[in-house]
Structure to design on (140 residues):
């Protein structure tokens, strides 16, 4: 048993997602029961589920804003899991954050903020420098 606290936290805490596997399985089941179209649920379909939690509307609005990560007005399976995760936390009297902590961003959504679903990312897998995101013509 080592007493060094450095060994406890894995070096890549980034990859850890706050939604646990068994939670995700449950949320996926709810997601499928809402009959997603092209793998997406519209706000109209998600709203009754959120309302069901009996949480205040301002909390639910924040949950939606945080979980609709690509801001397309729809939730995919991962975004829906984030929404449900936040709702369950709120029901346990935890406050809903005003900004999504990195641990809650689904791995599928990380470092891809400006890529829309269905678009083919042309960026290399490693995170590009900020400048290359602006489509400036190359010199020469």
């Amino acid at each position: 048993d080592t007493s060094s606290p450095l060994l406890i936290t894995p070096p890549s805490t980034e990859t850890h997602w706050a939604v646990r596997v068994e939670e995700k399985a449950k949320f996926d089941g709810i997601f499928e029961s809402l009959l997603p179209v092209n793998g997406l649920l519209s706000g109209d379909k998600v709203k009754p589920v959120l309302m069901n939690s009996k949480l205040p509307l301002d909390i639910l609005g924040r949950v939606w804003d945080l979980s609709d990560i690509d801001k397309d007005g729809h939730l995919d399976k991962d975004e829906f899991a984030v929404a449900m995760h936040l709702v369950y936390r709120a029901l346990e009297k935890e406050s809903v954050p005003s900004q999504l902590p990195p641990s809650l961003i689904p791995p599928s959504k990380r470092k891809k903020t400006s890529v829309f679903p269905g678009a083919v990312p042309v960026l290399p897998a490693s995170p590009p420098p900020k400048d290359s995101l602006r489509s400036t013509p190359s010199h020469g």
About this structure: The first helix runs from residue 21 to 33. The radius of gyration is 18 Å.
